[in-house]
Amino acid sequence: DSEVEHLLEESLLVRGKAYCPYSKFPVGAALLTEDGSLVLGCNVENASYGLTLCAERVAICNAVSQGHRKFKAIVITAEMEDKFLGPCGACRQTLAEFGLNWEVYLSKPNKKYFKTTVSKLIPDSFSPDTVKFL
Fold it and tell me: Which among 10, 56, 79, 103 is annotated as catalytic?
């Protein structure tokens, strides 16, 4: 569909902006908000590896800073020769913070993709629905 195609293109473009001098492993993310806005993110590495930010979390943080809290889909583009690359655990938890029933497309630079959902990436998740506030 044209919406997914557009997200694939944008994810690929922002992947080219990644700051990854250590791993040489660029990743791009294109996030579609519930109101149809597009928010992008790419990985930003740091000499202190633990401070590296993944593309998915950069996109989510950019979206939140723009006032978005509800998402429809995210495309994550990275290159793994023979398989699709899923988000790391921290990114899966960050995605789950904003709902379990939205689409995740794991994409390669050739635009081939695998469609899944946040709930499938992090089953039995710890999410806001899990936490009971007083």
Answer: 56
